[in-house]
Amino acid sequence: MKNTLLFAGISVFIAVALGAMGAHYLKETLEFPLTKIDSWKTAVQYQSFHALALIILVFISKSFPKINLKSSITFIKLGMSLFAGSIYLLTLNYDWKISFLPKIMGPLTPIGGLCMLIGWGLFIFNVSKIEK
Whose CA is closest to 83, among 57, 106, 108, 64? Predict the structure, then answer.
């Protein structure tokens, strides 16, 4: 669980830094279009939300040792990395103009979203098994 807490802390740190980058550098310096800035904000929001949720999941797993949240946590970590990471790279590609990047990163965004959904589905399934 220590690794999950470290992952979550680093993720929040990165989200704050990239949020500031999106608000200032991309918007003001590079003059990215609003649609790209909105995508960037979405990635920052999902990364922040899920990183904080991971911290909560660690404490839930400690409070309810009979349920195994490792698979939920793994899928959520993978999902947020793929989802937010691909959006960051696709947004930056507006400036970089690497032709093959959208073909590689584009499919990773929905795969990341699906992984997050699987993680939350596993969480719901495992919590439903808790006896009153």
Answer: 108
Cα–Cα distance measured from residue 121 to residue 12, given in angstroms and rounded to the nearest whole number: 23
Q: Which residues contact 90 (CB under 8 A, 6 or more apart)?
A: 39, 101, 102, 105, 106, 109
Angle at 80 between CA 75 and CA 81, to 5 degrees: 100
3-state secondary structure of 121: helix
The overall pTM is greater than 0.90: yes
- Tell me the chain's radius of gyration from C-alpha atoms: 17
Phi, psi of 52 (to 5 degrees): -65, -35
Residue 109 CA to chain centroid, in angstroms? Answer: 10
Which CA distances in Å does 25 have to 17, 19, 64, 75, 97? 11, 10, 44, 32, 18
pLDDT in tens, 28-84: 888 888 899 999 999 999 999 999 999 999 999 999 888 899 999 999 999 999 999
Helices H / strands E in the chain, number of each: 5, 0
